[in-house]
Amino acid sequence: MVRAFIHGLESSGRGTKGTYFGSRYPDMIVEDYFGTLKERMEKLKKVLKGKTDITLVGSSYGGLMAAMYALDNPSRVVKLILLAPALDLDEFTAYRNKTASIPVIVYHGSDDDVVPIDPVRHISDTIFTNLTYHIVKDDHPLSETFSTFPWDDLLDGLTNPLT
Questions:
Q1: Fewer CB within 10 Å, N- or C-terminus of the chain?
Q2: Span 17-30, mean pLDDT?
Q3: Which structural domains are found in the chain, ordered by start?
């Protein structure tokens, strides 16, 4: 099994979440993604080239990237864990007519002032047929709740442990 974390637009692999995953899950792929969406996606494709049984964790813009990668590579991705994913951006419009049956778990802060819950939830409900959507009392970066999520279960199980 391959596990990879994709950070948000203004973060890096050395941000709070990347550091968390790197210290607790040393086999997890935690890279830096910079530049345009196209450049970021090209790097992600290189990082994951030849890999299968992939669990992707994507935060915000990284959630957008993770969803795009999974929809483009459905036979290689076994689970998505999306943290306030920016699926409402125009860059995702071409993917809104696709569907995926892999387990998808979303955590979204109720006080998120960056990525709006309602449009992202609607998009997620339409695309992901095996979706669990959690709205938690938190902000966009999930500052208070991120470290309390059941990461061992989320990352190690091949199916959704919360359903």
A1: C
A2: 95
A3: 2-156 (3.40.50.1820)
